Structures are given as structure tokens and as C-alpha cells.
Amino acid sequence: MTAIAPDGSNVDLRLEALVTDLIGRVADKWTMIVLDVLGEAGTLRFTALGHAVRGISQKMLTQTLRQMERDGLVIRTIHPVIPPHVDYCLTALGHGLGDAFCGVWEWAADHRDEIEAARRAFDQRP
Amino acid sequence: MTAIAPDGSNVDLRLEALVTDLIGRVADKWTMIVLDVLGEAGTLRFTALGHAVRGISQKMLTQTLRQMERDGLVIRTIHPVIPPHVDYCLTALGHGLGDAFCGVWEWAADHRDEIEAARRAFDQRP
DNA sequence: CGCCTTCGCTTACCATTGGTAAGTAGGCAC
DNA sequence: GTGCCTACTTACCAATGGTAAGCGAAGGCG
Lengths: 126, 126
Prior knowledge:
CATH topology of chain A: Arc Repressor Mutant, subunit A
Strand order of the largest sheet of chain A: 1-3-2
Number of domains of chain A: 1
Helix content of chain A: 55-70%
Shape of chain A: globular
Structural class of chain A: mainly alpha
Largest interface: A-B, 43 and 43 residues
CATH superfamily of chain A: Winged helix-like DNA-binding domain superfamily/Winged helix DNA-binding domain
Oligomer: homodimer
Number of strands of chain A: 3
CATH class of chain A: Mainly Alpha
Order of helices and strands of chain A: HHEHHEEH
Radius of gyration of chain A: 19 Å
CATH architecture of chain A: Orthogonal Bundle
């Protein structure tokens, strides 16, 4: 079941590496939260997003949004007015990822207590 | 629908903050990859895990595993022999998270090409 | 005219995080 | 005694992220 590519490398391993790499870039805290917020709000401006994503710095917000835009997850629309007006919404790809990640949010909400209990137990060990 | 707690804070907001916090700790690159590897392999020793999780440093592996153990996601079993023998496997909680995150792996595998295309398009803009 | 405000950034500086590589424990084979 | 085994620590350095300040261009205000 291990196909070999023309260059001699293992295709399955290469694919796995690529997917793992992709997960590495996408599975980060801020990306997931921005994805969730935008998924629920539809369209938001930069500052509104900044308030909705509690705790994010402007720097990380711009950085995260740029990365998401580059990955085709969000669309950035600039309205050329003064003061500037820029808004963000998810692409179909972004919605897809949001839906895929939805299960994790549900899991987190459902098992919050268990995790807190596990932590307390762990912290009280000899 | 916004219940108010005895201390006056908004319960929905507090819950949301807690869940967001939890996502922040759990939605990190290495945790997700370790979760996946352990989910597929069942039980692995420290060094085997280190080889399976390509690119992780020993330091981050110990750190990630400790955190996951604290959160009740993995069980760490020490066999008191020399040289040391320690193995790791997922708890039910860990399997649950792995299953919840499974959708994201599938999404990543399915949309890899679209993302790469989006990146190329982005990188070639004026 | 000059000054302040607004919004979406960008930048300089510093703290925290993560990678690299070397060390440690402790028994067992040589 | 020397070296090897594994699962870590640790010291040191590079990269990442937070904080806070600045910027640019138009419009309102005195």
C-alpha cells in the first residue's frame, strides 16, 4: 500500500507530511478563534474583530488575518474611504474549516469539567 | 437568554471565555499531532513518539506530554526498570478530542490543493 | 490655519516561548 | 573502569508574541 513516487520518495509519507504541516499552520489558537467569531458574525471590521476576539493584540490580529487571507480562509475588503474601512468575512473554504473545527468546540464545552478535575488531581499529586 | 450569575457577571460570556481558554491550550500544533499519532498507534514509548511526531524536539515532547497528562488526555505509565521504560496512551477524554479533531484532519487532506492555490495567488499579487 | 479625531495598520522594544545540544541517573555488558 | 541504554533536564540562543507608540490622510472645530 505504499506507492512510490517518480523521485523515489514515499507518497503516503509525503502527503502525511504536507497535511501535518498544514495542520501546524492552521491549528493555532488565534486562527481558530477568529474563524469561530467570523463564522458567527458573518462580516466584521478590523476593530470589531479585535473586540470580539478577546485578548488578541492588534499585531497578532493583523498577522492572523493576513495569514488566513493568504490561505484563502477569509476575504479582506477595503472600502477606500477616510478613515479607512476594512471588513473581513469567511470564504467557503473558511466556513468548511469552521465546520470541521466545530466538533472541537463542542468537545471543549462538553468536557470542560472533566479537564478541570483532571488538572486539580494532577496538581495535587506527590 | 443572558443569565446573570450571583456575582453579576454574564454566565454565557464566562462560559465562552472558559471554553475559549481551553481551546487556546488544546489547539496547538504539537498537541494535535501527538493526539493523532497516539490515537493511531495506541501505545508508544517516549522515543517512539519522538520519531513518529516528526520535527518535535525532546523538550517540546516532554512538555506537550506533561500538559496533556495534566489535562487528562494521556496516561503516562512508568515501568521501573533500567534503562527507563515509559509509555503513553490516550485516555477516553483524549480519544474524544482526537475524534472531534478528526474532521479537521479530513478537511486538511481534502482542501490542501485549494489552500496551496490560494497561497500562490496571494503571493503573486501586485 | 492648526490641532484633534478616526481606523487600520506598522514598528521598536522587551518578555516569553521554543530549538539545539549537552548533561544526568543508574544499572548492566564489556 | 568505560561505555551504553532511555527518558528526561538544563543552559544557551533564536524566534515568536505582547505593549505601546507612531503614521497617514481627510474632515471637524475653534
